[in-house]
Amino acid sequence: MVAFVSPFALLGVLSKFVSASPIVTIADWRALNQTVGGRLHYGVPFSQPCFSLLTGGLPNTPNTTECAEIQSRNEDHCTFSPLLSSIHIELNPSYVIVFRSQHFGAYEITQWETCQTNGDDCLLDWKNPLNSAAFSPPQQCRQGSVPNLYVRVATIFHLLDHI
Fold first, then answer.
1. Which of 97, 120, 147, 160 could make an S-S bridge to 142, C-beta 3.0–4.6 Å?
2. What residue segments make up the domains of the chain, in order of their start?
3. What is the pLDDT of residues 11-54, one digit of tens each?
């Protein structure tokens, strides 16, 4: 089992390496990465491989192979039941749980990938993931609520070593 931990959860570890300045430097992140055995990674929104523009209009080279897989496995897995007034998750292990859980930037309920403060997101059209209008210019892939960095935790020792 692999777990993902936001580096901000490791502030105690990071505080050992941070300079007196309140700004975390590249050297601080490198020191943290070395401490956690090279398991510090960039958080990338799940649908980013489909987009040719990132936040601020920065260019991105779409990965058509990854995008096609994301589109084919990004089926609508949440349905609203007016009778029960609640959201039901349709558990389809081969597409929803397994595939999305292998990607740090993928959240089971996709609205949580969106920044709840400003609405920034990087989402496909949930009704039709093949709809290229959702990811073609001028649409931009924004970071949303996906953390910029994370620590990949694969064993209990990865946690215990740094508590």
1. 120
2. 1-43+147-163, 44-146
3. 555 555 555 567 889 999 999 999 889 999 999 999 999 999 99
